[in-house]
Each structure stands twice: as C-alpha cells, then as structure tokens.
C-alpha cells in the first residue's frame, strides 16, 4: 500500500521524534532507542505516521544516523508510515541523490522538500516517490514566526509568494494522485490556521503536514487530509521522556481531531 493510502486509514496525528540527548541520562543513544521504540509501540493505534527530524540525529554524530535508520525500520515493523523531515532541495542531479537516500532507501515513506530551487529540483523527488510508493511534502507556509519574511512577500499579481508556490504545485498534485489524494503534499504550519483553510482550497488533493501543534502554540485542526504534527508535546510531554504522559497527550489531541476514535 502507498504512503498516502496508509496514513489516511489511521488517526490524523503524527508523532514527531526530535530527541534531545541531555534528557536521556548517562547513555543517551541507548535510552533514546528504547524510549522511541516503546513510544511508537504504545502510540501505534493513535497515530498515522512517525516524523523523524534528521537534524536531531545528525547532531548525535555517525551513531545518530545509524540510530535513526534503526528507528525507521522499527516504525515500519510496527506498520507505521514514516516521514523523514530533512527539508531537502538542490539542483536536479543532487536532488536525485537525496531522493535515493531517503525515498528509495525507505520505500513507502515520505520526505519534506524545499521548493526554493524550482520545479526541476522537485522532479527527482516526485519521480522517486511515485516509484517507491512514497510521498513528498513541499514547504509552502512554515510554522515559524519569521516565515512571513519571504513566504508572505506580495507579488505583482497580488498573490503572496506562498500562494504562488501552492498554485504552481496544484497541477503536479493532480498528476500525482493516488485515488482522491495526491503523493504531493504540503507543509503548512498549524500556527497559521487561516492559511491552512485558504491553502486547502488551492491544493484540494494534497495532504497537509501541520507542524507546530503544542510547543509552538498551534491548536489541533480537524479537516480532510490534515495531519496534525507534534514533536516536543508528544515525545516529551511535561518536558521529559514519559510514555504514560505521551499516551494521555495523544488521547487528548485525538479527542479534538477524531472524537469517534
Ligand atoms: O514549518 C515547519 C516545518 C517543520 N517543522 C518541524 O516540525 C517539528 C516541530 O517540533 P515541535 O517540538 O512540535 O515544535 C520540528 O522537527 C521542526 O523542524 C516545523 O516546526 N515547522
């Protein structure tokens, strides 16, 4: 089954894994490994995917990269879809290599990508995702307070830059459809609910990855194809590793997002 089909069969909440070694005792890598495997198992019925932020694993050195690989495999063993949040983007020939590194290496998984280099730079990701049954989430309107500096710039035709990015993506999103939804998704901050609804109109077939829930002040947003994403708030509820607390937090989010579950 493709990434898109798998996530849509599950509750619309994404667990973000952004491990901070300082919170994991004297043997942090081993503790992160055990805690994350336990957390994914405990939350398996309450989430649609696990998002791994590569930056936190890269910061752990060469062993950190191996750990991320082990945890991605662990997620797939639990039948959990995986999103690699690496925000890649480069000239086409290098984008090919990034696509191999994440989409081909982890079939059926998704990758976040940066559209700044243009359409030719996105194509290798889209081609590889189509081959591997994966998906791509393009940064459209990011969750951070400074995202307006460039993304909200007004263009000569009156649109904002992020709106022009969305309008550019819509045709490709239609080409990349898997049934009613598309392999080409968008990242839209949960911290900008008005833009979430406005972009939903512009990109009707795209799943939206909505980071910013919890720690960045975003609220749960319920709607078709909206994948609410929390890292710190779910991985470290109360500011530290806590399996029970994470389970309660996931249930609290789900009571807002999918009250029937
Ligand atoms: O617009 C964006 C795109 C990606 N992120 C990533 O999501 C998580 C958010 O972490 P929290 O602890 O839930 O704040 C993190 O990995 C970011 O790199 C984002 O926040 N906003």
UniProtKB/TrEMBL annotation:
InterPro entries assigned to the protein according to its UniProt record, in alphabetical order: Aldolase_TIM, OMPdecase_AS, OMPdecase_type-2, OMPdeCOase_dom, RibuloseP-bd_barrel
Gene Ontology MF annotations: orotidine-5'-phosphate decarboxylase activity
Catalytic activity: orotidine 5'-phosphate + H(+) = UMP + CO2
Domain Orotidine 5'-phosphate decarboxylase: 12-247
Any Gene Ontology biological process: 'de novo' pyrimidine nucleobase biosynthetic process
Keywords: Decarboxylase, Lyase, Pyrimidine biosynthesis
Coiled-coil region: none
Active site per UniProt: 87 (proton donor)
EC number: 4.1.1.23
Family classification: Belongs to the OMP decarboxylase family. Type 2 subfamily.
Protein's UniProt name: Orotidine 5'-phosphate decarboxylase
Species, as recorded: Meiothermus luteus
Gene that this polypeptide is encoded by: pyrF
């Amino acid at each position: 089954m493709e990434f898109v089909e798998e996530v849509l069969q599950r509750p619309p909440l994404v667990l973000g894994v952004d491990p901070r070694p300082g919170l994991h005792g004297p043997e942090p890598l081993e503790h992160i490994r055990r805690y994350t495997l336990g957390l994914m198992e405990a939350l398996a019925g309450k989430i649609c995917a696990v998002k791994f932020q590569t930056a936190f694993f890269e910061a752990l050195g060469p062993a950190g990269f191996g750990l991320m690989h082990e945890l991605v495999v662990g997620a797939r063993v639990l039948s959990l879809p995986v999103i690699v949040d690496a925000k890649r983007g480069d000239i086409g020939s290098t984008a090919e290599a990034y696509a191999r590194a994440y989409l081909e290496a982890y079939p059926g998984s998704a990758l976040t990508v940066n559209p700044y280099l243009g359409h030719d730079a996105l194509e290798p990701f889209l081609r590889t995702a189509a081959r591997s049954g994966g998906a791509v989430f393009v940064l459209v309107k990011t969750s951070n307070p400074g995202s307006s500096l460039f993304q909200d710039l007004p263009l000569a035709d009156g649109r904002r830059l992020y709106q022009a990015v969305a309008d550019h993506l819509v045709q490709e999103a239609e080409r990349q459809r898997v049934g009613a939804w598309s392999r080409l998704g968008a990242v839209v901050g949960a911290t900008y609910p008005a833009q979430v609804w406005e972009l939903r109109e512009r990109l009707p077939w795209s799943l939206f990855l909505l980071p910013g829930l919890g720690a960045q002040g975003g609220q749960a947003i319920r709607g078709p194809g909206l994948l609410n994403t929390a890292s710190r708030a779910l991985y470290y509820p109360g500011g530290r590793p806590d399996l029970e607390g994470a389970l309660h937090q996931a249930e609290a989010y789900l009571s807002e997002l999918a009250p029937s579950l």
